[in-house]
UniProtKB/TrEMBL annotation:
<protein>
    <submittedName>
        <fullName>Uncharacterized protein</fullName>
    </submittedName>
</protein>
């Protein structure tokens, strides 16, 4: 039986949590963590950008300025006939898209919008073996995912992390302490689970920690 520790937030919070500090600094800390502690880092297949239409919560001038800037950077939206505009961008647009999301501080803060951006990282851990049983071995984009959602001058994260050692392993807690110090968000112990993978049939079970 292959045993690991699994971390994911519950559906009750939409699998996301807010970061500490300003989005630009928090994003920088996440990239530093990936550079020092992760391997096989890849971006998700697509980058989702949305610009909200004017409404009682979004000023018309701000929405129009944001839309003009998005079109200038990324071309026409994929849904011109709809009020809310959206783009599915390739990974070559990643840096520009993130900078666009981070620079929304140029506009007055809105109750809703005007823009949101979702990107994700996929990776494995540098300090642990990356030899996994099926079905984990067939996960082409790493066993860990970190989704980033930029919205309303804020950044929230959706972590789905596999630590491929038993919870009682002497290596786990020191690694978790290092990771917690590096991240701009809290790893909440109550959301850690045992992950058991049957190497014979690939069945996965998740158990609460005793």
């Amino acid at each position: 039986m292959f045993e690991a520790v699994f971390y994911q937030l519950p559906k009750s919070v939409s699998f996301h949590q807010a970061v500490k500090g300003r989005p630009r600094e928090a994003f920088g800390r996440i990239r530093e963590m990936l550079a020092s502690m992760a391997v096989s880092v890849q971006l998700g297949h697509s980058i989702a950008l949305n610009v909200d239409p004017p409404s009682e919560w979004t000023d018309a001038a701000v929405a129009a300025a944001c839309l003009d800037e998005a079109r200038r950077r990324f071309g026409l939206e994929r849904n011109p006939g709809e009020s809310g505009k959206s783009w599915q961008l390739g990974i070559e647009c990643f840096e520009d898209a993130v900078e666009f999301a981070l620079s929304d501080e140029r506009w007055p803060r809105q109750t809703v919008g005007p823009l949101s951006l979702h990107v994700s990282y996929h990776f494995d851990w540098r300090d642990f073996s990356n030899e996994f049983p099926e079905p984990l071995a067939s996960w082409e984009r790493g066993t860990c995912t970190l989704g980033l959602n930029f919205h309303r001058r804020a950044l929230s994260v959706g972590p789905s992390l596999i630590f491929p050692v038993p919870y009682e392993s002497a290596a786990f807690q020191p690694f978790l302490d290092r990771l917690t110090a590096a991240l701009p968000f809290e790893i909440k112990h109550k959301h850690l689970r045992r992950m058991l993978v049957n190497p014979k049939n690939g069945a996965i079970r998740y158990l609460h920690l005793a």
